[in-house]
Amino acid sequence: MPHFLTKPGLILVVAWIAQTLGQLVGLSIIIVGPNVAAAASNKRAEDTYQTPARACPKRARSTSTDRPGTTS
Q1: pTM, whole model, 2 decimals?
Q2: What is the dihedral of CA 50, 54, 60, 64, to 10 degrees?
Q3: Which residues lie closer than 8 Å to 72 by C-beta, 6 or more apart?
């Protein structure tokens, strides 16, 4: 192995670059993850609550004051 590859300064620079790139990739995963989960949750909620409305058109026209258990 060449001597210049074993110098402490070069090793520190390479380690710092690897650590910084690792943090940037990790941070982007942490930021994007909740957005993906929220989008999937919103899709499931829409599918859950839109299906009964299509099955019963009268129910789709009702307002929140028409539903039992809700207060205005």
Answers
A1: 0.42
A2: -30
A3: 64, 65
Of 45, 48, 25, 26, the residue nearest 37 (C-alpha): 45
pLDDT in tens, 22-68: 999 999 888 888 899 999 999 999 888 876 555 555 555 555 555 55
Cα separation, 23 vs 25, in Å, equals 5
Q: Tell me which DSSP letter residue 7 carries.
A: -
Q: How many residues does the chain have?
A: 72
**Tokens of residue 43, six digits:** 């899709």
Q: Contact at 8 Å (CB) between 67 and 59?
A: no
Q: In the chain, what's the furthest Cα-to-Cα distance?
A: 81
